[in-house]
Write a structure and sequence with these properties.
The protein is mainly alpha-helical. It has three helices and no strands.
Protein backbone atom coordinates (compact mmCIF):
# COMPACT_ATOMS: atom_id res chain seq x y z
CA UNK A 1 0.00 0.00 0.00
CA UNK A 2 1.20 3.47 -0.73
CA UNK A 3 0.96 6.35 1.70
CA UNK A 4 -2.30 7.68 0.19
CA UNK A 5 -4.02 4.31 0.58
CA UNK A 6 -2.78 3.96 4.14
CA UNK A 7 -4.03 7.44 5.01
CA UNK A 8 -7.42 6.63 3.47
CA UNK A 9 -7.52 3.37 5.42
CA UNK A 10 -6.58 5.18 8.63
CA UNK A 11 -9.21 7.87 7.98
CA UNK A 12 -11.83 5.16 7.40
CA UNK A 13 -10.86 3.44 10.68
CA UNK A 14 -11.05 6.71 12.63
CA UNK A 15 -14.49 7.51 11.21
CA UNK A 16 -15.71 3.98 11.99
CA UNK A 17 -14.27 4.24 15.47
CA UNK A 18 -15.94 7.57 16.13
CA UNK A 19 -19.28 6.25 14.89
CA UNK A 20 -19.01 3.12 17.01
CA UNK A 21 -17.94 5.12 20.04
CA UNK A 22 -20.88 7.54 19.69
CA UNK A 23 -23.30 4.65 19.30
CA UNK A 24 -21.93 2.85 22.33
CA UNK A 25 -21.99 6.04 24.40
CA UNK A 26 -25.66 6.56 23.50
CA UNK A 27 -26.39 2.99 24.59
CA UNK A 28 -24.42 3.58 27.77
CA UNK A 29 -26.42 6.74 28.45
CA UNK A 30 -29.68 4.78 28.05
CA UNK A 31 -28.40 2.02 30.33
CA UNK A 32 -27.31 4.48 33.02
CA UNK A 33 -30.60 6.41 32.90
CA UNK A 34 -32.54 3.14 33.19
CA UNK A 35 -30.28 2.15 36.08
CA UNK A 36 -30.96 5.42 37.93
CA UNK A 37 -34.71 5.13 37.37
CA UNK A 38 -34.62 1.57 38.71
CA UNK A 39 -32.67 2.65 41.79
CA UNK A 40 -35.19 5.38 42.54
CA UNK A 41 -38.11 2.95 42.17
CA UNK A 42 -36.40 0.34 44.36
CA UNK A 43 -35.51 2.86 47.06
CA UNK A 44 -38.98 4.41 47.21
CA UNK A 45 -40.60 0.97 47.33
CA UNK A 46 -38.25 -0.11 50.11
CA UNK A 47 -39.01 2.98 52.19
CA UNK A 48 -42.77 2.64 51.81
CA UNK A 49 -42.63 -1.09 52.53
CA UNK A 50 -40.45 -0.59 55.60
CA UNK A 51 -42.74 2.05 57.10
CA UNK A 52 -45.90 0.02 56.41
CA UNK A 53 -44.31 -3.15 57.74
CA UNK A 54 -43.13 -1.50 60.94
CA UNK A 55 -46.54 0.05 61.61
CA UNK A 56 -48.25 -3.30 61.01
CA UNK A 57 -45.75 -5.15 63.20
CA UNK A 58 -46.12 -2.68 66.07
CA UNK A 59 -49.91 -2.89 65.88
CA UNK A 60 -49.74 -6.71 65.87
CA UNK A 61 -47.38 -6.78 68.85
CA UNK A 62 -49.60 -4.45 70.88
CA UNK A 63 -52.62 -6.60 70.08
CA UNK A 64 -50.87 -9.86 70.94
CA UNK A 65 -49.52 -8.39 74.16
CA UNK A 66 -53.07 -7.85 75.38
CA UNK A 67 -54.63 -11.08 74.08
CA UNK A 68 -52.01 -13.73 74.86
CA UNK A 69 -51.25 -15.23 78.27
CA UNK A 70 -47.77 -14.63 79.78
CA UNK A 71 -46.24 -18.02 78.92
CA UNK A 72 -47.42 -17.91 75.30
CA UNK A 73 -46.15 -14.33 74.77
CA UNK A 74 -42.52 -15.44 75.11
CA UNK A 75 -42.79 -18.11 72.41
CA UNK A 76 -44.84 -15.98 70.06
CA UNK A 77 -42.63 -12.88 70.28
CA UNK A 78 -39.32 -14.74 69.98
CA UNK A 79 -40.72 -16.93 67.21
CA UNK A 80 -41.83 -13.85 65.28
CA UNK A 81 -38.42 -12.25 65.76
CA UNK A 82 -36.65 -15.34 64.38
CA UNK A 83 -39.01 -15.65 61.43
CA UNK A 84 -38.65 -11.97 60.56
CA UNK A 85 -34.86 -12.20 60.79
CA UNK A 86 -34.86 -15.09 58.30
CA UNK A 87 -37.20 -13.12 56.04
CA UNK A 88 -34.80 -10.15 56.10
CA UNK A 89 -31.89 -12.41 55.12
CA UNK A 90 -33.83 -13.89 52.20
CA UNK A 91 -34.84 -10.42 51.00
CA UNK A 92 -31.25 -9.15 51.18
CA UNK A 93 -30.06 -12.01 48.97
CA UNK A 94 -32.95 -11.30 46.59
CA UNK A 95 -31.91 -7.64 46.34
CA UNK A 96 -28.35 -8.71 45.49
CA UNK A 97 -29.68 -10.94 42.70
CA UNK A 98 -31.94 -8.22 41.28
CA UNK A 99 -29.09 -5.69 41.37
CA UNK A 100 -26.82 -8.05 39.45
CA UNK A 101 -29.45 -8.58 36.75
CA UNK A 102 -30.01 -4.83 36.47
CA UNK A 103 -26.28 -4.19 35.92
CA UNK A 104 -25.97 -6.70 33.09
CA UNK A 105 -26.96 -4.30 30.21
CA UNK A 106 -24.45 -1.74 31.45
CA UNK A 107 -21.68 -4.33 31.59
CA UNK A 108 -22.60 -5.62 28.12
CA UNK A 109 -22.33 -2.11 26.67
CA UNK A 110 -18.93 -1.55 28.25
CA UNK A 111 -17.75 -4.94 26.98
CA UNK A 112 -18.98 -4.00 23.51
CA UNK A 113 -17.01 -0.75 23.66
CA UNK A 114 -13.89 -2.77 24.51
CA UNK A 115 -14.57 -5.06 21.56
CA UNK A 116 -14.97 -2.06 19.25
CA UNK A 117 -11.67 -0.66 20.42
CA UNK A 118 -9.96 -4.02 19.91
CA UNK A 119 -11.37 -4.22 16.39
CA UNK A 120 -10.23 -0.73 15.50
CA UNK A 121 -6.74 -1.40 16.83
CA UNK A 122 -6.53 -4.57 14.77
CA UNK A 123 -6.52 -7.04 17.66
CA UNK A 124 -9.72 -8.62 16.41
CA UNK A 125 -10.40 -9.74 12.86
CA UNK A 126 -14.22 -9.57 12.81
CA UNK A 127 -16.35 -6.53 13.53
CA UNK A 128 -18.12 -6.69 16.93
CA UNK A 129 -21.32 -5.48 15.25
CA UNK A 130 -21.21 -8.38 12.76
CA UNK A 131 -20.48 -10.80 15.59
CA UNK A 132 -23.54 -9.55 17.54
CA UNK A 133 -25.76 -9.95 14.47
CA UNK A 134 -24.63 -13.57 14.09
CA UNK A 135 -25.46 -14.28 17.75
CA UNK A 136 -29.02 -13.03 17.32
Amino acid sequence: MNIRQELDYLKKRVIQGADLLLLRLRLLNLDVSNQVAGIIRIFSTLVITAVAGLVALIALLFGLNIVLPEQTKIWVFFGMAGLLFLTVLVLLFQIKKIWGEANRPLADTLKGMQGDLDYLLGRQMESPVNKQNKDV
